[in-house]
Write a structure and sequence with these properties.
This protein is α+β, with helices and mostly antiparallel strands and 180 residues long. It has a single domain, classed as Cyclic Phosphodiesterase, Chain: A. It has three helices and ten strands. The strands form three sheets. Strands 3-1-9-10 form a four-stranded antiparallel beta sheet. A four-stranded antiparallel beta sheet has the order 2-7-6-5, with no helix packed on it. It has a two-stranded antiparallel ribbon with strand order 4-8. The relative contact order is 0.27. Bound molecules: adenosine-2'-monophosphate. The site of adenosine-2'-monophosphate has 5 residues, from strand 3.
Length: 180
């Protein structure tokens, strides 16, 4: 992607990744819902967005990574429960979310937003609502589900991704745990 100045751009976002085992478990649970409509997110793309940066000049990526490396992290692995199934009607997504967002997650997002401010990334209207998108273009009610969702992301690092042609490429990742 290029902007009007022909400067190369990349579409970037920070997120918590899922382990392969978590992706598999969540995909199996989603399959059991027997959904008809919508576009299921490929399990390989499951993530919990921390901050969406949008189209960023490639030349700025080094500064973004340097700022991310200085973000104050919880010092331990971050546990994020995903124990609620919701529909967001306005954006037409079916998603998993925590009933209560862990304080350490909110603090991490705040620290990340503060770190990105001097680089020109700010969205004063944005409210952070942690979620993992299961299905896009979803236009029905919350489906019946016998087994309530009971997932827990266990994250040892956070990641900067590039979204490109429906796939996510890791640009950088930083530990959440302090070295022992
Ligand atoms: P989501 O499923 O967490 O909403 C890459 O585009 C990712 O960034 C998307 O998968 C989307 O993840 C997230 N994202 C957050 N805000 C966005 C926005 N305004 N536009 C596009 N993607 C956004």
């Amino acid at each position: 992607m290029d902007d009007a100045t022909n400067e190369p751009l990349k579409r970037l976002f920070f997120a918590l990744p899922c382990t392969a085992a978590q992706r598999k478990a969540i995909a199996q649970w989603r399959k059991a819902l027997g959904l008809k409509g919508g576009k299921p997110v490929p399990a390989d793309n499951f993530h919990l967005t921390l901050m969406f940066l949008g189209a960023v000049p490639v030349a700025q990526i080094a500064d973004i990574c340097a700022a991310a490396a200085k973000v104050k992290t919880p010092g331990t692995a971050l546990q994020v429960p995903l124990d609620r199934l919701h529909v967001w009607r306005r954006s037409h997504v079916l998603l998993l979310a925590p009933e209560e967002a862990p304080l350490a997650l909110l603090q991490l997002v705040y620290a990340l937003e503060q770190a990105m401010l001097p680089l020109g990334f700010a969205d004063p209207n944005r409210e952070f609502r942690p979620h993992l998108t299961l299905v896009r273009d979803y236009r029905a009610e919350v489906p019946e589900h016998e087994a309530p969702p009971d997932f827990r992301l266990n994250c040892s690092h956070f990641t900067l991704y590039e979204a490109h042609k429906g796939r996510y490429r890791v640009v950088g990742e930083w530990p959440l745990e302090n070295p022992t």
